[in-house]
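ok so i was messing around last nite and threw this chain in just to see what happens. nothing serious, just curious
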Amino acid sequence: MTDKQEARKAEGLTGTEKKPYRVADGVEWINGAKVPADSIVRLNDAEALYDKSLGRIAAVEGKPRSRKGKGGAEAPAEETAAADAGANQVAGEPAEE
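result:
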């Protein structure tokens, strides 16, 4: 085993951990298995390499933020107010102050 492999193993990074990947629209099979309805597959680095290189899958980054009323945290008031202000603006007209 090389020094790099030993270091990764010591950190718990062996490359065999399964990670979530989102499957591109229209792709029905990934790594020899049917794509589930939610289009998320869990693969290790070696399993993902081929389909990732072809753009069929992309790594899922973190957990998506829940929407209001779905049991998750609400967006900060500043973000909500800014979004509300921009929602009523007509394209090409200056924003109201």
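not much to say yet. The two ends are 64 Å apart (CA to CA).
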